[in-house]
Amino acid sequence: MENAAEKAQESHLKLSDFLCFAIYSTANAVTRAYQPRLAALGLTYPQYLVMVVLWEQENQTVKAIGDKLSLDSGTLTPLLKRLEAAGLITRRRDTVDERQVLISLTDDGRSMRERAEAVPVAMGKAFGCTMDEAQGLRSELIAMRDNLVASIDDAK
Amino acid sequence: MENAAEKAQESHLKLSDFLCFAIYSTANAVTRAYQPRLAALGLTYPQYLVMVVLWEQENQTVKAIGDKLSLDSGTLTPLLKRLEAAGLITRRRDTVDERQVLISLTDDGRSMRERAEAVPVAMGKAFGCTMDEAQGLRSELIAMRDNLVASIDDAK
DNA sequence: CATAATTAAATTGCGTGCAATAGATATCTT
DNA sequence: AAGATATCTATTGCACGCAATTTAATTATG
């Protein structure tokens, strides 16, 4: 038989209670769920996110894309090279500030947007929740994410 | 100028994408936030999850751990080998059913639990939400994850 | 104006995730 | 009992994420 102290400890380390794990495993499921819907486009989920960002606004720097997606150049540089190799984007140095690399859409990349419209429709159904639930959940997650990010420097 | 149909598609596209992205970017932030808190233990976040599962119940098969964490042997086998190399677990074939590999804790792995108690406490603070909010969010995410997983086979 | 500090992107190295496959073992079917 | 089927783990290959470092270019500072 366990004593009270051990029970209290358990309540902290129970996997089933972990909000973190819920976020982690749901994110993995999101990536897996996107995969068959993106297969026709030949995109991975992170690549799709970059395309969404570029469909919203062309001609962005790597830095600007990274800020929007919270990804650094270590992740983006090879990913963008793959999108370039696939003929969807172009990469060129900014002539004004040569530290920067400007990412633009090719005609193929731009025209893919139409075919991509079906993806969020299918995913919306897959989530199986109402628009209101989705909005509520989204704003709670963003608030939590910002709290987490703010806490990281303190913990170092 | 866009017509009404295009606008409707766009707004629907953005909503569902943002929920997916909120989950995705929050999960990335979770991993980054755990990192400094797990550094003292020498664990990555997925490794920590495996240890939590084993602290709850010793002597589990790779399959059982994988079911609880929704990870397959392609992810777990190398991860478990690293935990073994770190002296935290042991791996041995089940003599009754030799397809299975049983994972157990070493004394070092078992005793790490005490030091790990501080981790969920620190993370709880980092999330910056009440227990009730966390529980509510957790159950919503799990429900959504299960919907997503169920939808994957349909989409293939 | 020189140089120190900052910024942007690329590179390196490591640890996931996961699809696809292989190999060994166990179970089912007839 | 024999062959087909299913299960479990390992392996291979690829694409992230991210810390740490490097290189090049820009800006700030004395």
Describe the structure.
Two copies of one chain form a homodimer. The first copy, chain A, contains eight helices and three strands; from the N terminus they run H-H-H-E-H-H-E-E-H-H-H. A three-stranded antiparallel beta sheet of chain A has the order 1-3-2. With 156 residues, chain A is mainly alpha-helical. In chain A, helix 2 (19-38) packs antiparallel against helix 7. The radius of gyration of chain A is 20 Å and the shape is globular. In chain A, a hairpin with a 7-residue loop joins strand 2 and strand 3 (101-105).
Describe, in short, the structure shown.
The structure is a homodimer of 156-residue chains. With 156 residues, chain A is mainly α. Chain A has eight helices and three strands.
CA(first)-CA(last) distance of chain A: 39 Å
Tell me the structural class of chain A: mainly alpha
What is the CA-atom radius of gyration of chain A, in angstroms? 20 Å
Q: Assign a percent range to the helix content of chain A.
A: 55-70%
